[in-house]
């Protein structure tokens, strides 16, 4: 019996120690669990409500090497995230106001960062020539988001209603490229819905299907 040795493992991906991370590094790695710890219990409880706060990235956000600052002009609240002055291995978030106003607006800023990493330059797609197994977690996330956006722009869809005589009917949405078929039912007729499937089960395609149902068959749209 011949025994073949395993191939040598690739060299480890170089990572910075926590005290060398820049503000950009910290925010690009920020995930929901760390965000809740940063906010504290009272502010973290407001994340779901604060995510609806409108923020103009061009005029309301200042992002430099030293700070990430958001100004809310209507409420005149300013929230600033920066590296901790005494502990270089952590960041801090400050608000110009106190109490519930502070909790809400700090939660709104954290929600903005989590939702808009690509637009803020915190999830830039990595070099396509770099093997995926050598990419860090945040780089893999950026690559997946970029691929989904490209797919949404290019992938042609075919729509087949279950009953052409009924305005609010189920529709089968099929990808012309992959051949996969998705069912679009309640959302097309109701005008609003929550897609709560797990990652990778087709929420993006279902959303595109709802939009195309409205474009191709306006009578399928909600009355409101």
What characteristics describe this protein?
224 residues, alpha+beta, 2 domains, three-stranded antiparallel sheet, 9 helices, 36% helix, disordered N terminus
Can you offer a commentary on this structure?
36% of the residues lie in helices and 16% in strands. The chain contains nine helices and seven strands; from the N terminus they run H-H-H-H-H-E-E-E-E-H-H-E-E-E-H-H. It has a four-stranded antiparallel β-sheet with strand order 1-2-3-4. The protein has a three-stranded antiparallel β-sheet with strand order 5-6-7. Mean pLDDT is 75; it is low at 1-7 and 9-14.
Give the overall shape, derived from the CA principal axes: globular
- Spatial strand arrangement across the major sheet: 1-2-3-4
Q: Sketch the topology as an H/E string, one letter per element.
A: HHHHHEEEEHHEEEHH
Q: Describe the sheet with the most strands.
A: 4 strands, antiparallel
Question: What is the share of helical residues?
Answer: 25-40%
Task: Give the helix/strand class.
Answer: alpha+beta
Cα-based radius of gyration, to the nearest Å: 23 Å
What's the structural domain tally?
A: 2
Mean pLDDT: 75
In terms of per-residue confidence, which ranges show pLDDT below 50 for 5 or more consecutive residues?
1-7, 9-14
End-to-end C-alpha gap = 73 Å
The quaternary structure here is single chain
Our count of helices gives: 9
Portion of residues in beta strands equals 15-25%
Give the beta-strand count.
7
